[in-house]
Every structure is written in C-alpha cells, then in structure tokens.
Automatic annotation (TrEMBL):
It comes from the Eukaryota. One of its GO terms (molecular function) is RNA binding. The keyword Nucleus applies. It is found in: Cytoplasm; Nucleus. This is RRM domain-containing protein. Belongs to the CELF/BRUNOL family. Residues 1-19 form the signal peptide. PROSITE patterns: RRM.
Amino acid sequence: MTRVYINIFIYMCVRVCVCTLRRGGGGGVPSCPLHFVPMKEADAIKLFVGQIPRNLEEKDLKPIFEQFGKIYELTVIKDKYTGMHKGCAFLTYCARESALKAQSALHEQKTLPGMNRPIQVKPADSEGRGEDRKLFVGMLGKQQSDEDVRRLFEPFGSIDECTVLRGPDGTSKGCAFVKFQGHAEAQAAINSLHGSRTMPGASSSLVVKFADTEKERGLRRMQQVASQLGIFSPMTLNFPAYNAYTQALVQQQALVAQSAYLSPVATVAAVQMQQMAALNANGIIATPITPITPSSGTNTPPTIAATPVPALPPPIGVNGYSSVPAPSNGQQTETLYTNGVHPYQAQSPAAALDPLQQAYAGMQHYTGPEGCNIFIYHLPQEFSDSEMLQMFLPFGNVISAKVFVDRATNQSKCFGFVSFDNPASAQAAIQAMNGFQIGMKRLKVQLKRPKDANRPY
DNA sequence: TCTTATT
C-alpha cells in the first residue's frame, strides 16, 4: 500500500516538473532532474521580441535566445480568436543579466530570414511605465535622419529610442518617435520645441507632442477597417441600429473563429468592430469617422466583373445548399497582418473578399430556398455587389449578393438581394439591418417575396 | 504626420 502511494508521489513530481519546464517553450529540455524547477530572479525582465518570421514557433526561437542564458518562459504571441502568429513573442530569462545581454546583442542588431527589419528585443510594455514618455514629432524635413532628430532632443534628457518613420522605399515620412527615459524630460522637450521652428521643406512649424496611446492607435486602425468595409458613415455610429449591427458582429465572431468559412478579413473586422463598439460606449471616440466613398476616390473600382469565376458551387440538395466547399485561405491568414492591411484590402473594397466569395458575388443572382433571401432597399447609390456583400457577411454564409443596376445608365437602382444558406441568417440580417442608417437614408431590409407570390396589381 | 507586433 505504502509503495503505491510512493509511486503516485513520484509520478506527480514528474508531472509537475514536465509541466513547469514546458513553459520554456514547448518542451525540448533534455534533462529534467526531479528536484529542479526553473526559477527566475525577482528582478527578472520580461522582454518583448519583435520582427520574428511567422513560421517560427517557440522551439525554433529557443536556440536563438538560449545562448544568453537559461530561459524561464518563451511564448509566441498569437491572436486570441484566430490563433494566428503575430510575429512577436515574450521572453523571460531566469536571470536579469541574461535579458540585458540578449537585448544588447540582438536588438536592432540582426534580421531574421524573410524579415525587412531587424529583430526587436526590449522590455515588454508590461514591464516599464506606460507611453507617457514617448513623443511624436511631426513636420520634420525629409532629409533629417535619426541622428539629426536625436541631436535636437538630446538637450532635454536621456533618449531611449529615436526613430524617423520611413516608407517602404526608405524615404522619410517627415515624422519620428522620440522616447525619453522620463515623462518630465519629454514634457520639457514639448515646451521648448513644439512650434519653435520650421524645418527646411516642411509645410508648417515643428510638431512635438505625446505619441498616440495604444487606444488611439487601435482606433485609428479600426477606422481604417471600417472605411475599407465601406459600410460606415459619420452618422452611422451615433445611431441605435449601429448597436444591433455590432451585436451581430460580436455574436458572429465566436462562430467565425471555428467555422473557417468567412474570410479572415471578416473575422478581424468583426473583432475590431467589437472593440470599436466598446470604445464608442466609453465615449473614447472623439474624432469623426472618416467618410467613405466605396468604389471611388483613390481605390481601384471593384473588380468582380473582371475576376475569373471558378466553377459554380455544388448543386442544390433537397434541403437547400449542400456541401458548399470551405475556402482554402491558409496563405491569406499568414499574411493578414502584414502592414496591418490584408493585401486584398489594400487594393479595393471588392478585392477584400475571400476568392470563393468573390466568385459567388460574380455569379448571376443565385436565389436560395425560401426564407433565405432578403430584399434590401435604400442602398447608397455607390454600393455595388461587393459593398452589399460585405455588409451582410457578418450574419452568415452569403450565397449571393446582387445590386440591381439600370441597364442604360449602369447606375445602381439602390436595391438588391442577398441570399444566405439558411433562414436564421436571413432573419438575423433583417433584425439587425432593417432601419440601419447610412448617410441620410435608412435601409429597408425584408424577406424577398417568393417568386410565385400573388401581387394584387 | 502616429511604426511592426505587447499575452
């Protein structure tokens, strides 16, 4: 009996040991003395590691960092909902000294294969104070280098980081980030430098202010997504129907993570809009949402008509649409966060779609079973199939989205039809979108009349 | 004129 207990005890010790070491990045620790559990020093530093190729996991990264000391924990950062590798990681060494060594040896010092920028190794945001010591500097001359900027700010205190922002071609964007060691130093720089002079080639005087907070940056990105989706106008956000739409997006987002049917773009958009809703509710949104003009401005016009349409979906089964294939979107997922913009998004609203959905949208109006088709009236004049499709994607699998167009003028008639693969999605869409305000109009969204319905006249 | 990411 006693022997049994001893065995259990030993077994549990082994389990504890294994689990603890796993924190070091998915196992791979060769020896595991029973009594040894990795500990970190009380003053250990958690490091943020950036510019990691997305195909590298903990086990691949471990060798790079192990040379500076024993690793306590190494975690690749992944998206909460999609599990997608975010191209960065957290790294904690057992010893503070190892972290300092790794930072000075690696930070900005080498570039991992496939990356355009050097690896980043620095204390994680959670370690230090917030961003109250980081300045945004605008209206710099295009010729000014990191060093020029540093010289300008040096008199006000010790500078941790100083970077001129550059485009892909290396030309300066005329602005920079300068991080001081303390808030007071940063404030002093603002007081002395903001508006104090005009740099050669700049259109107005020097701007020196605290950089956007994390929240402000998130907002900026969400506004971009919202405008790329082409469904928001400045008025929309203040209208109650917005909440209904957001609600649907939030619900959808949970499904989306598993269904793999919607495009990654839709997934991300749903998540971001949830966050936007939260910010909105907290009264954080101060700047107006950028007005959108889908299919116009600098965007390439929708390209659906020009897109080769792959084979039609399988024939309709007795219960409606059967076995619609899931899109293969692995590659898109990998590149989704590149520059924060999906490559499709960067081109045009229409191109933001999953290829399968593009194909569907390019098809002839494809009517689903009764109860699955909705009629939409009072669409904005500039909405085409793709904008309407994007608007209804959050409610389910869209089989078809067709805006009716005047043959003579090629202008939208401001109404269209969307078909889902099930009646519940259609109902959800009606629920959320009927009365939804876009610009000065409100959508009318209802079930499509069955084809054989009797009309009184 | 607000980066390339911060569980």
